[in-house]
Amino acid sequence: MSGLALGLVVLSAVIHAAWNLLGKSRRPSPAFFAVASFGAGGLLLPLIVTVLGTAASLPGVFWWVLLGSGFCQMIYLASLARAYQQADVGVVYPIARALPVLMVAVVSTLLGQSLPVLVWLGMGLVTVGCLLVPVVSFRHWRWQAYGQAGCVWALLAALGTAGYSVFDDRALAIMAGHYPSFMAPALLAFTYLGMQFVVTGSWLMLWCCHREGRRQWRQSWADWRVALLTGVMMGGTYGLVLLAMSLTENVSYVVALRQLSIPVGVGLGIWLLREPAHRPRLIGAGLVCAGLVAVSLK
């Protein structure tokens, strides 16, 4: 991974932890994230129209990949909202962010990409660290900690993250091969991001087609400024990741290094939200850091 891609992913990780902290403080709903997605997509709409008008229509497979990515993003955001209603950032965030590391690595391997042993070791440390964060005490270990609603929703969010990471890598490859070589990767990355936000917002609207969802819509529009800020932060962080993906041969490295946001998020939750600093939670965050070092050395 190049130094530029490394810097982009680190910056993205810090911003990602910040918007999750903001979201937790507002008790977000799927409707909240729908407003955030449409807001971010609307800001990028002029770029979308401009870039799409510079070449012939994209192939049909691209639009199916985009729909798949938006669906996985919907699963991720809706599950994340439910998880934050049930548990602390220090529990939900590491699970939702760390488990996709091995998921994406397995998919990448099945697609023919090979990973060094050191990378697998690092990814294993990240996963073990994530499994420690729901534990309150080593002395009074309870497997029931993993069955709490917050952990279950966080696991579903992790599945969504792994899914959209694979779809996005494919979509960016299609765009890179379709548009002229002189077009900057950042331009294509943010164009795709805007389209993804619009599709994700549409999927989230379908999620909210019920009585409770309509009530959440009214609450979210009343809080539209915070939702829009959240959307801008979401767009900024993942736009940087998309750009890093376009500069990296193996998406697994990008997904793994993004997990730097885990110790940052746990620390901010303890500091700003006064969440408990249980020893297993802190050790788990430390293992995540060690795993990230192993991955970056590859």
Automatic annotation (TrEMBL):
Database matches in InterPro entries: EamA_dom, EmrE-like
Positions of transmembrane segments: 6-22, 31-55, 61-79, 91-111, 117-138, 150-167, 187-206, 226-247, 253-273, 280-297
Presence of the UniProt keyword Transmembrane in the record: yes
Protein name, per record: EamA family transporter
Keyword terms: Membrane, Transmembrane, Transmembrane helix
Gene3D superfamilies per record: 1.10.3730.20
Domain of life assignment: Bacteria
SUPFAM superfamilies reported for this sequence: Multidrug resistance efflux transporter EmrE
Domain EamA: 6-133, 149-296
